[in-house]
Amino acid sequence: MFRKPAHVVADRVAGHVTVRHRARPSAIRAALPGILLVMFLAALDQTIMASALPSVAGDLNGLDRMPAIITSYLVAATAAMPLAGKLGDAFGRKRILQSALVVFILGAVLCGLAQSVPALIAFRAVQGIGGGGLMISAQAIIGELVSPRERGRYLGIIGSAFIAAAVVGPLAGGVAVDLFTWRWIFYLHIPLGIAALAVVSMTLHLAAPARHEPVDYAGAALLCLAIVLVILLCGGAAGRETPFLALAAAASVAGWLLTARRATDPIIPLGLFRDRSFAIPTAISFLIGFAMFATVSFLPAFLQVGLGLSATASGGVLLVLVVGLLSTMTVSGLLITWTGRYKAYPVAGTALAVPAAWLFSTLDSRSSIWVVLAATLGLGFGIGLVMQVMVLLVQNSVGRRDLGTATSTLTLLRQVGAAIGVAVLGSLITARFVAAVPTEVAASLGEGLNSLTPQLLAGLPAEDRAAVQEAFGGALPPVFVYAAIVLAAAFVLALFLPQRELRTVAFADDDGGGAPVRQRSGRDSAGSKQHRERRHRAQPAHRRTRDAAPDGRTA
């Protein structure tokens, strides 16, 4: 049977066949190198930092503030995401991506020059603002160039950027710490960032956005403030200021909700949450972020301090997680493109991740590395079946005008979950570790307990080293029980995901005003008038007005 080229789609409406073109392969091929380089840069920052973090915190005399080094980047990136998504919808995604690259490079320079933990925390926040813009802009650009149904074909290519970051990042971070200095993990970002900026500027060409409503900057500021305050409260960083910060957080959330209801074009339209295809994936992403990022952030510390592995070896363990994640992500993406069905993958993924997280909670300082690898691989397999499917569902549920906003909201909630997970679990780990260290060992170490690095640990007397390893090895793993509980909640939510048809036409070449175009099937023809009327009545009011095509039809 003759098969149409990949970039052509035929829509049958009222007995007539209209041939339309998907996003041009040449445009996708031209843009992909720059987008892949951006994704590599954003992913590299996470993977290269994880294996070097204990040495960074120890060198700057702040092992007790290790969670804050992680959280500062996550909080800033999370706070920047809604505004980056909305500005991309309003002023063009390319312009926002270029601006994010400049801020990210500036943050990397400052981090490399940091002389104290407070300075590093502040500069990581600057870099996080740029990193948030990178993640949102890259995902939204792919959502504009490639339709959800065809996305699976590109997951393998997109995944190659993460594979490269997963291979290069942990090893480069470990080598920098073992042979040079941790500052080189930030200096490496500078030439990569400049190269990404040059490639994106030359190869990415997107249509200018339509005329837009005024951006809700007041709502964006209140939302950013609320995010920062909530994460600080969850991490226990407020101290005696907790009541005041709790009141300020509540006031910020209330103010944001008020502006979201009154603004012409709110930073996050609340009406999006009326659609189950949007609300459930964003909730699952929050839970996945909590469990996954907390595990990835603290696993290297357990391997280096609790098991005595080198930074390079602990980076190799993280590589196993990423390989598992990308393998199931690629395979499930191809199957979704082939069948058009997706619900089974997040259900299976969350079911697989729960026992893997529980297995982490059984570890101690005497555990076999093979048990660690088995748990790491299982978690990677599970998360890989979930993360990109959630992005696909959200981008499939909205029109072009809300593409950046919807993408940023999903990633925002995943990052909020990650930041809260790191803050909460990090505080529990620190408290349990300090309590578990024998009094005489803690007294002999003094302030060195907060400056503990793998190198310093190796230089301790054998008896003291064994006591510290025993304390850390016993303090960290039980905390992973909370990650398993959170993943179990994600599994329950995945059971209620709706199965919808996936749009087959990319927004970049859709002449219908940005309305989602669903795949036609014999059993449920979206071309029929009755079906269009049912979909129109079922949609929330804000989508009926935003996603209406010029001829009055809705998707």
From TrEMBL:
It holds the Pfam family MFS_1. InterPro entries: MFS, MFS_dom, MFS_trans_sf, Sugar_transporter_CS. The chain crosses the membrane at residues 30-53, 65-84, 96-115, 121-142, 154-172, 184-208, 220-238, 244-260, 280-303, 315-337, 344-363, 369-394, 415-435, 479-497. Residues 529-545 have a biased composition (Basic residues). The keyword Transmembrane helix applies. The keyword Transmembrane helix applies. It comes from the Bacteria. Residues 31-501 form the Major facilitator superfamily (MFS) profile domain. PANTHER family: COMD (PTHR23501:SF197), MAJOR FACILITATOR SUPERFAMILY (PTHR23501). This is MFS transporter.
